Amino acid sequence: MSEKQRNAVDLSHHLSEFAKTLEGRPPPGSNVKDVCRLIFLSTEYFPIESITVEYLKPSAFPLKPTDAVPHGTVLGWIANVLTGKAADKIIHDWVGRVHKPAYNDWKTLIDVGSSSAWMTTISILLNPGDSFICDRYAYNAALLQGRARGMHAVAVATDMDGLSAVDLERVLAGWDEKARGFKRPRVIYTQGGIQNPTGLLITAQRKKDIYDVAVRYDLIIVEDDPYYFQQASAPYGSRTGPKKQTDEEWLDNLVPSFLRFDYEGRVIRLDTFSKTIGPGGRLGYYTGPPLILEKLAAFHQGFINFPSGIAQAVIGELLHRFETEGFIRWLRGLTAQYEMRRNWTIDALYKALDVRPKDDWSRALTAYAPSNGQMSEKFTKTASLMSFVPPDGGMFMWFNIHLHNHPRYKALARQTSPAAAKNQLSTELWTAIYDAGVTFRRGELFAVEDDEERAKAGEEDVFLRASFSSGPREEFGEGDGYIRHRAY
Ligand SMILES: Cc1ncc(COP(=O)(O)O)c(C=O)c1O
């Protein structure tokens, strides 16, 4: 933190009607001046080998009451993880070390994971009927929560560098409240690191461009970023392989988050331990300007309370033992595991299909039926089956299935409608893949626009998201020609 940096600008006009009813009072036992207080894989990689818990006997307290306290030391230790001064600083120091926010008075606050953190964040910022901006395909649970609260998701175009700052500005500048039926969005929902569902990164330059638009239009950026540390060390197929670097250099070379560009305190970052330690911990943390974090703390105090003390004890103790260096080393090793799995997945695709560069200028690849392959439907030899961009990291792959080349698509679309044809063929495809032992998430789940809107916009294809986070190597297509993933 530099003395030259300034404090957060006043964002009180962004608070929802609900937030105004919340008293910005610190939760009991916490110190909102340094709000961080409470200290948390659907995968196979967990840093906890075993947990031993010893319970008191039901008869621990005699029926004739006594003032003796059984096992006070153990209970005291759990309480220390929650309230000890050192624990308090762990998260704040970590965020300062990793993200280096560009203003002075940023705070952190422990929460119960990012799903709940997004729910609380929209509750204190948006009223029912308000809107938020996101990619045309965005994390499904975030969309679901917003819609359930009567909020509108507004789609902005995306390219391989992330959400388009140019389209963002176009949408904001041309906002017609009457035609849209609701006010101009004040919030952007995005992921700063690897994105769900696309598996791609927003480049540093693009983040800066988006941030500049946010300043010009007085927007708040909510950066929900579970996969920040899972940035692969090299693109798929890179000949040079991972760079030789120390763990500290590895951390410093990650593409920075939106926080690094945040000189006005208009980014609310949601971190979680779900993808770095384990999803069952239900532990994460917010970073943002003091006013917003006070409101979030008040929300927690009234409606959620704080994360489980047991989860905090287990994970807090792990962080104490690992210390910063150990945790960076753990993250780096974890990322290397996922990178290997990404490479297995794409290797398997190359093995099963005829995969070629889509064009001369992008990283996208197109897959065709292999010349010796057997297809149940008759495709022309030159018809592509799908395209995809090798993920920049994370645990997902996003496939653009070329339904427009399906032999039955055009006739079906004529008989019914393009949206109905898409729906029928994508259901058939998903079912056939499922019957072959592979589960994907259908792209429709992540779509901001409905079937008709997407068809009207000329989108003929469908998307599928695969997860490569678990399963043995043999299931990644070795031997039987299938890519077997367990989707999350
Ligand atoms: C973008 C995004 N946000 C949030 C979550 C959920 O995080 P948590 O387990 O902390 O609720 C996920 C998990 O899949 C995710 O992909």
Automatic annotation (TrEMBL):
Residues 108-351 form the Aminotransferase class I/classII large domain. One of its GO terms (biological process) is alpha-amino acid metabolic process. GO terms for molecular function: pyridoxal phosphate binding; transaminase activity. The keyword Transferase applies. Its cofactor is pyridoxal 5'-phosphate. Belongs to the class-I pyridoxal-phosphate-dependent aminotransferase family. PANTHER family: AMINOTRANSFERASE, AROMATIC AMINO ACID AMINOTRANSFERASE, HYPOTHETICAL (EUROFUNG). This is Aminotran-1-2 domain-containing protein. It comes from Mycena venus. The lineage of its organism: Eukaryota, Fungi, Dikarya, Basidiomycota, Agaricomycotina.
